[in-house]
Amino acid sequence: MQSSTTVLESQLDWLTASFHTRESADHAKADCDRWARSEVADGAQVKPFRLSGYEGWTAGRVRFGQRLGGALVQLSGDLAERHVAQLAARATNVSRVDLAVTVRLDPPRPDLARVHFDDALQYRKVHPASARPLLTQDGDGGATLYLGGRASNWYLRVYNKGAECLENHDLPGAEHYADCWRYELEVKGPDALRQADLYPAIVDRPGYVQAYVHQWAENHGLVPAFPYTGDQKLEPGFRRRSDRESRLRWLAESVRPAVEWLRESTDRDALAELLGLSD
């Protein structure tokens, strides 16, 4: 049986930037307010956000916090990809970027994380100072390989993207990412700032990310399931399930049975008043 790989996504997938002047922090807040309004219009819910002394809010793929002397911005998904140049130009520091490649495999390879784990172990026997691998698995097909330390400047995650969506009850995401694996290379410290400064000038960003993640994985003993170049059928901009969709699904699965029971035991007017629908 002939096998194939299809690269669906290859992009900068996360950005953390800080702003230490009043002017740059104000610009960052104005940008985040604008992006957040769009996220809320798409169904995102505004929630509190706190990190490293910064306090603010998160809305979908946007996180913003302030503290004395500055502001912090985090963007994820294609928002990070689209706005990296704008933020990096004003930021005092970029402390983290993620480079991500998502690949669909035909036939599926449910054992891919285990294969990568074994390869990383073998590589570490020859190179004892190399990144330490860690493997986690569950009974529903979920599996993740971690390579490196969480606090290190380089940290690779390889995980079953479709299974992750199913675990989060994200059925549209699970359908979109069926038989897909995500390679996420988290870059922090000075290397993150260098990536953020370099990235906006790159003409072929998907090609750069694909080659970079492939080379890093190969240099640490893995044989990535996608090629160094090519096999791209990019589908950027796929939106994960919105908070509105999450709430509607929760209502359908958890509240509707109770409402059906009430309908059988309560008259319509009393039920409408009970649910706040009498006006």
Tell me about this structure.
With 279 residues, this protein is an alpha+beta fold. The protein has 2 domains: 4-219, no CATH class; 243-274, no CATH class. It has 9 helices and 10 strands. The chain has helices spanning 22-41, 77-90, 112-126, 161-167, 171-176, 190-198, 205-219, 243-265, 268-274; strands at 4-19, 46-51, 54-59, 62-67, 70-76, 93-106, 133-137, 143-147, 154-160, 180-188. It has a 10-stranded antiparallel β-sheet with strand order 2-3-4-5-1-6-10-9-8-7. The longest helix is centred in the C-terminal third of the chain and has 23 residues, at 243-265. The radius of gyration is 22 Å and the shape is globular. It starts with a strand and ends in a 5-residue tail after the last helix. Mean pLDDT is 89; it is low at 246-251.
Q: What does the main sheet amount to?
A: 10 strands, antiparallel
Principal-axes geometry comes out as: globular
Structural class: alpha+beta
For the record, give the distance between the C-alpha atoms at the N and C termini, rounded to a whole number.
63 Å
Radius of gyration: 22 Å
Order of helices and strands: EHEEEEHEHEEEHHEHHHH
User: Total domains, how many?
Assistant: 2
Range of helix content: 40-55%
Q: How many distinct beta strands?
A: 10
Count every helix, treating DSSP H or I runs of 4 or more residues as helices. 9
On the 0 to 100 scale, the average pLDDT is 89
